Amino acid sequence: MKNRKTFVTAVATAMMLTMLAPQAMAQSVQGAPTTAAKVDTKVSADNYLKQSAGQYGFKTDLSDLKHVSTIKTEFGSYVRYQQQVDGADVFYHQVTVTLDNQGTPVLVVSDYVPNLTGVKGKKPKLNENDAEGKALGHNKVKNTKELVSRVFGYYVEGNSAVPAYKVTAVDADSLTTWETFVDAETGNVLKNKDLNQKVDGTGKVFLPNPIQSAGTKTGFADNNDADSTALTNQLKTVTLRGLDGSGNLVGQYVKTVQKKATSYSATNTFNYTRSSDHFENVMVYYHIDELQRYIQSIGFTNVNNRQITVNVNGTTADNSFYSPSTKQLTFGTGGVDDAEDAGIIAHEYGHSIQDNQVPGFGNTLEGGAMGEGFGDYLGAIWEDKLAPGTYGKACIGEWDSTSYSTSNPPCLRRLDKNKVMPGSWYGEVHADGEIWSQGEYDMAQLLGVDNATKLILQSHFSLTPNSGFNAGAKAIKTADQLLNGGANASAITSIWAARGISTN
Ligand SMILES: [Zn+2]
């Protein structure tokens, strides 16, 4: 796949460059001389290219076309050439000759760019190590997983051949395979792309959970993970983006590793109902992938931008957790399976975001409450985004909590209880998290969800492992200063003052 894509690009470039010679690039050979059956295919292809040199702009001696391969199949032969300048490859510019079984050329396909010149005998300013450093720096790669390849050659830009290095490296953190062309003279990055094959799949999920999307809790019950018409009716078909093409629910930002059920589909189609153990894999893949894309869409490419390993149905407890040591997420099956509720998925992903931004964060009770509060904030805004109605507003985990909450809607926790410091302080991180989550959620109501989320994520970078409420609120105000010139300073001050938290 990757090669084909690049090939098309190369052809397009070559077509642009050969407008002076307006012949079709892929042209059937007319009136080629009939050759004997035993003729050498390479010789036959060479002869034909020499004859048609004028048409394609080749040199008459083919001195800058290096023979790459001759492939014989049942129905014909294929001779491939690589364009060169001063003995080095012109990246991605090739020519093929197709010959029938009599050895007669029947088709030429060419990316050849005529009249390219190089810098013969001149030593490039950058060496391989310099080029590798430029490429890795450009892509912010800290550690490489696989040996980096550095190849010197020529990169076609306009109608000149720019001496360049092609650096290929796999980022150990994101597993992205970067191919970067670095100008061997200036060190500038000429072209950069992610080579990994990405495919879209489809699947069925709750958006965000059956109760919030239905707008009622009536008629919904866990019933020991059984299907029901009411629950199945709340399934929505979605696109699963960034899959790696293996047929597994593994992609750019999420890797599902459930022991009970490894989800596989040759067509990347993952339609399950909630009674299936595969259903939770689809839920975590979709919601975490989309959350990460959302974070990137509001401007952050460095917030948990990695492939996270997720183990759904990994414990029978009615609990889920993020492990700061393994950096993985685990969801439990007690009550409603936790991964059937996008509010719970987003909450747990919130913990991994915070650990990614501030390793060791939450070392104090207030910090722990901020961690839970941010998770609830992320869960609540994610649920609101997916089901914008009023039912379930300021409430997280409507579906998950049906097994332990009698309120309407049922809620794991709420973000509008008006808890304040110091009076509501309880000394337990989840309960006290409601102080923090309400401040953040109120910001979203007043400033808009995207603006509030931007400020909150930006503020995390300022925090330390022992930060508490005051430092957190100050950091949010500082983020507003950096992002908006302090436009929301007074709104932020009063929102946090209402929670008994100073921004000074
Ligand atoms: Zn939590």
Features:
single chain, 504 residues, alpha+beta, Nuclear Transport Factor 2, Chain: A, Elastase, domain 1, 5-stranded antiparallel β-sheet, 4-stranded antiparallel β-sheet, 18 strands, 33% helix, disordered N terminus, binds zinc ion
Describe the protein.
Mean pLDDT is 89; it is low at 1-26 and 30-37. Helix 7 (277-297) crosses helix 8 (342-357), helix 8 crosses helix 9 and helix 11 (449-460) packs across helix 12. The radius of gyration is 30 Å and the shape is elongated. Strands 1-5-4-3-2 form a five-stranded antiparallel sheet. The protein has a four-stranded antiparallel sheet with strand order 6-7-8-9, covered by helices on one side. Strands 12-14-16-15 form a four-stranded mixed sheet, covered by helices on one side. The protein has three domains: 2-110, no CATH class; 128-194, Nuclear Transport Factor 2, Chain: A, CATH 3.10.450; 199-497, Elastase, domain 1, CATH 3.10.170.10. The two termini are 56 Å apart. The chain is α+β, with helices and mostly antiparallel strands and 504 residues long. It has 13 helices and 18 strands. It binds zinc ion. Zinc ion (ZN) binds next to helix 8 and helix 9.
